[in-house]
Amino acid sequence: MSYFWDAVKDWKMWVGMAIYMGCDMPLYAFSLFLPSIIANLGWNKTVIRAQLMSVPPYAAAAILTVIIGFIADRTRQRGLCNILVSLLGIAGFAMLIATDTPAVQYAGTFLGALGIYPCISNTISWMANNTEGVYKRGVVLGFVIGWGNLNGIVSSNIFYQAPRYYVGHGVILGYMALFLFGGSVFMTLMLRRENAKRRRGERDHWAVGKTDKEVEALGDKRPDFFYTT
C-alpha cells in the first residue's frame, strides 16, 4: 500500500491521466465517424471498397507511430513529440468541423489519426520512464491507462448529429487541445523545471543521512534521477 499512496500523491500521475484521456477518448471515437465520411465520398457502393478506403488513415498513423517512437526513444523528448503530434490531430478535427466537403473531411481524418495514435504509445512510455520502482510504476500505469479507457464511454455518446457530427468533433477537439496538448505542455515545463533544480543541487537534502538502500527506495525522488521531458 505504500507504493499505492506514493503513486496517488504524485502529481505526475494525475497529469498523465489527463494527457492519456486526451488521446484515448479520440482513439475510441475515430472508428465511429470514419464510415460516414467514406459514404459521403460515394465509396460505399461495394463493401470491399468501403473497407479498403478506411485503411489508409490507419496505415499512415501506424507509420508515424513507429517514427515517433524511434525519435522519442533517442531524443528523450517525449513531451515535445506529444505536443507537435497533437497539433496534427487538432488541425484534422478542425477541418472536420469547418467543412462539409467530403474530400477535405477525408484528408482531415488522416491528420486526426496522425495526431492520435502516436500519442498513445508515447504517453504510456513517458509515464513509465518517469516512474521509478516496479510497484509504483504498476499503480501509475494502471490509473493512467484505466482512466483513459474509461473515457471511451464519452466517445460512444457524442456522435448523434450525422453527417457533420459537430458535437462529436467538437468534444474531441476540446479533449485534444485541453488535455493532450495542454497537459503535455504543462508536464514538459514542470519536469524541465524539476530537472533544473536537481542539477543545481536543490534536491540533494532528500538523500542526506540515508543509506544507499534508503536512497534507492526513494525511486524517482532520488536527487540523481532526471526525468524524461
Give an overview of the whole structure:
- It is found in: Membrane.
- GO terms for molecular function: transmembrane transporter activity.
- It is a multi-pass membrane protein.
- It comes from Coniochaeta pulveracea.
- This is Major facilitator superfamily (MFS) profile domain-containing protein.
- It is a single chain.
- The chain is an all-alpha fold.
- The chain has one domain: Growth Hormone, Chain: A, CATH 1.20.1250.
- Helices cover 76% and strands 0% of the residues.
- The longest helix is centred in the C-terminal third of the chain and has 34 residues.
- It is elongated and about 75 Å long.
- The relative contact order is 0.17.
- The model has no long low-confidence stretch (mean pLDDT 92).
Briefly summarize what is shown.
With 229 residues, this protein is mainly alpha-helical.
Mean pLDDT: 92
Figure out the total of helices. 10
Q: What's the CATH architecture name?
A: Up-down Bundle
Q: What is the count of β-strands?
A: 0
**Series of secondary-structure elements, N-terminal to C-terminal:** HHHHHHHHHH
Structural class: mainly alpha
Gyration radius, in Å: 20 Å
**CATH secondary-structure class:** Mainly Alpha
Transmembrane segments: 21-43, 55-72, 79-98, 104-127, 139-160, 172-191
Keywords: Membrane, Transmembrane, Transmembrane helix, Transport
InterPro entries: MFS_trans_sf
Subcellular location: Membrane
